[in-house]
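dude i think i finally got it to work??
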Amino acid sequence: MLLAGCDGPQSTLAPDGPAAQAAAWLWWGMFAWFGLVLLLVVTLWLVALRRAPRQYSPEQARQVGLRWILAGGVLLPGLTILLLLAFGIPLGLRMLPLPLGGPPPLRIEVIGHQWWWEVRYPETGVITANQLILPVGQPVDVEVTSADVIHAFWVPRLGGKLDMLPGRRLSVRLRADREGPYRGQCAEFCGSQHAHMVLAVEALEMADFIAWQAARRVEPPIPREHAAAVRAFRPYCGECHRVAGISDGRRAPDLSDVGARPSLGAGTLAMEAGAMRRWLREHQQLKPHNGMPRHDHLPEATLDAIAAWLETLDP
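look at this
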């Protein structure tokens, strides 16, 4: 019962990478040390309550007071700081993107927007949104910045938090040691929909990761049954959204593989049957103040056709 909070998709105490493991070790070390300090203080307090009062001369009182000041005000804090530095500095170095002895790490760019994530793979030109795909067992340098306000990049089970600042680029190194899904979250309040800024992270085996990127570098043909939806999408949606081979919008999430993502609206609505249709109709109710305008001017049949086509964008 007491350890129920030590697991879960956003638990820093269930690490799956070296940077997160270092943070977990640091937490457990601090927990153990300060637990001992608390035990010592409580023990001294109980002893003081049970002891019979003593009479001290002024000189004895001065010596006793000086002794407690030195022990509790200098020695204990000084020892605590030294232990934390000796324990924390080596662990902190494991969280930094220091040069590696072998091949350079994979580089991924993540740009924070209100309230979604833009994810770029510069080496292959792949662009996606609200999802971060990593290869298992390989160091990855995630270079973060912001397009508007301050955000914070955080995948608790893989590494520490890093602020995303407009006009600056910072880097955090991650490595996933286990295949599977993880959950990232903006960790800096960035507006009314801050809670709905989830980053779906997944670690794939290297062969699957290469195949994932290769599939997104191919422009899929437009099925004949969705040609009308594509024609409607271009003038109304394509100015903001990019779909590979169809539109080049840069103001909103890239939709080239939107049908393969686990959610819509950066974690607002699970991707399931009918979700895309509901999102296009009700996005301002589901995620108020998001940057996409209402589509009241479009016939429902057109929205349904666009939704049906977008759901097929699953490379």
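The first strand starts at residue 106 and ends at 113.
im so relieved honestly
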